[in-house]
Design a protein that fits this description.
It contains 10 helices and 5 strands. By secondary structure, it is of the alpha/beta class. The chain starts with 17 loop residues before the first helix and ends with a helix.
Length: 248
């Protein structure tokens, strides 16, 4: 005697495709994966990506894995391949000021909603990395360690990571002195020292404790007085004023 509803049999699939294959076989596809980059950074945007891969594995994507396990070179190589082979993908940036306004967790959820809403065709099911995301337009399932367990989440993690890294490299050129191209906005010793010397920039998340502490330790009047006397750290007075005073 058969039971109702019928149980989904999850068979082992190649690589990271097991969960997606099971969902597709039960008619719940296409399956989107969602992941973010920059949640733990104290500067720069939070970047969220959503991605729907094709129903069958592709040899060019055999190297997909959690973006943190991949080298920068491999991520850069996979980035255009994912964009070319995916059925749909969407990348969303939540700027630092919006992370401050919403809080990082709410901003992350909002970014995931926006990224999924930007997919065309719309997914039939969504796999999210680590936690439940309410308000999605399709049924969803949080997957612990999802970027190492589902190919669509791994693809989204690469899209988000590469996009954010490129943004931080660009910010290093427009706001020099903080070393964004190296630490990508995370709280390294070099980054902490730069904030202590220059004060936070307008790309820092002012709601973060270490940024708030640096801002309090370097009030605008103090930096302005120092700038009036010359340059600090090899930067001109104009550059210092823009970064440390005018951006506040």
């Amino acid at each position: 005697m058969s039971s109702w509803p019928p149980r989904t049999v999850i068979r082992r699939a190649a690589g990271l495709r097991t969960m997606e294959s099971a969902l597709i076989r039960t008619g719940l596809g296409p399956v989107a994966g969602v992941d973010e980059a920059g949640r733990g950074a104290c500067a720069g945007p939070l970047v969220v990506a959503a991605c729907v891969l094709g129903p069958k594995p592709h040899a060019a994507l055999a190297g997909l894995d959690d973006s943190k396990r991949l080298t920068e070179r491999v991520r850069e190589e996979l980035f255009p391949v994912i964009q070319r082979l995916a059925r749909a993908w969407c990348i969303v940036e939540i700027p630092a000021w919006e992370v401050d306004r919403l809080g990082v967790h709410v901003a992350n959820i909002e970014g995931m909603r926006r990224a999924v809403a930007g997919l065309s065709p719309a997914p039939g099911y969504v796999l999210t990395d680590g936690f439940r995301v309410p308000g999605l337009p399709a049924p969803s399932l949080p997957v612990i360690g999802g970027d190492a367990a589902a190919a669509c989440i791994a693809a989204a993690s690469v899209l988000a990571k590469v996009s954010r890294d490129r943004t931080m490299v660009a910010l290093d050129e427009t706001i020099p002195g903080y070393g964004f191209a190296g630490h990508k906005g995370y709280s390294t010793a070099a980054h902490t020292a730069a904030m202590a010397a220059l004060g936070p920039s307008h790309e820092h998340r002012m709601s973060y404790a270490n940024v708030a502490a640096a801002r309090s330790a370097r009030p605008a009047a103090e930096v302005a007085a120092e700038v009036a006397g010359g340059s600090v750290g090899g930067r001109t007075a104009g550059e210092m004023y823009t970064a440390a005073v005018g951006a506040r």
